[in-house]
Amino acid sequence: MIEISPAYAQLLGMNNLLGITPAISAGFAPPVLRWRFVRQRFTACLENLKITVDQAADGKTKLEGVVACLNRAYWNVSDGTAHCVLLGSWAKHTRTRPPRDVDLMFILPIEVYHRFLARQGNTQSQLLQELREVIRATYPPTDIRGDGQVVVVRFNTYQVEVAPAFYRQGGGYLICDTNSGGRFKHVDPDAELAALVDADTTYDGNVRKLTRLLKQWQRHCNVPIKSFHLEALAKGVLPTLYYGRYDEFWFDWLVRDTFAHLVQCRNASFVMPGTGEVISIGDEWLSRAVSAHDRAVRACAFEYANDEYLAGTEWQKIFGTVIPAMVT
Q1: pLDDT digits 0-9 by tens, 145-157
Q2: Hey, which CATH number is domain 53-187, 3.90.780.10, 3.30.460.90, 3.30.70.100, 3.30.450.40?
Q3: Cβ-Cβ contacts under 8 Å for 9 (sequence gap 6 or more)
Q4: Where are the domains of the chain?
Q5: Distance separating alpha carbons of residues 286 and 61, to the nearest angstrom
Q6: Which among 52, 177, 208, 262 has most CB atoms closer than 10 A?
Q7: pLDDT tens, residue by residue, 23-60
Q8: What whole-number distance in Å separates Cα of residue 227 and Cα of residue 217?
Q9: Cβ neighbours for 45, distance < 8 A, ≥ 6 positions apart
Q10: CA 327 to CA 118: how far, in whole Å?
Q11: Alpha-carbon distance 323 to 221, whole Å?
Q12: Can you give the pTM of this predicted structure?
């Protein structure tokens, strides 16, 4: 007796309603349903990457505490949200679990800009040090330091990174860059967010989904590439794939072909929305991208063959146990 799958049994039932005699009676084997585990596997992985309600609340508490401290010092108000612009994964909803940090800009009065502009030396570094001391007065036992463009506040569960900023005439903001003697740098997080939302809408949510997967690869395999580089990669690769809008059933191919694309992007660059700044992604990540692509190719072959466990073990070499080896 030939065993048939539930999906094939449903197909036979539909054929009978249409008056079609199934070929199984003539000795033909039923079709094999390929890629049986892909949709379940990647749906579960993406669900596992979502931060929890408690983690979101904890991050919000840490963020608002730092912002309120700065508002008291610079604006004479005690408010945990005023003069704050979220950046990065918290603004773009590309956070992954476990959460890493909360990025924000704190808008300072223009008088502070002119006060520091009148100083000598690396005035941007001096501004970061002033913010560090203001925050330290509220959180004396906490590790707080200036780091390039931000003040890093290291709590036990979260790291809050604060970029002091000023409104820029003509749009966007000016933030500190302490490198090479110091300068004020033009950024436009509103334009960045708008570009992401537009691309994510065009591709039915897959820009954010792919960005989260790539960030998990970055974390699990210790890849020396920045998260916003991965976001740019996700926005760039989807238009090249005819299935760029399709759901998780196609995500084995999506991951495989994204790594193939990344391997070809050695020392490539992209343009930041709003400012036109050209960003190079370098190539320090190349060997890890090649390894990830090779593993994804093997995983795709196992997915086609419905080898649930072997496919899962290959994916776990890329993403860790956040992606399940077994889904049934």
Answers
A1: 887 889 999 998 8
A2: 3.30.460.90
A3: none
A4: 1-33, 53-187, 191-322
A5: 38
A6: 262
A7: 444 456 677 899 999 999 999 999 999 999 999 999 99
A8: 11
A9: 213, 216, 315, 319, 322, 323, 324
A10: 62
A11: 14
A12: 0.88
Which residue carries 């419905």 as its tokens?
A: 306
Decide: 64 and 160 in contact? Cβ < 8 Å.
no
What's the confidence (pLDDT) of residue 206? 98
> Which of the residues in the chain have pLDDT under 50?
1-26
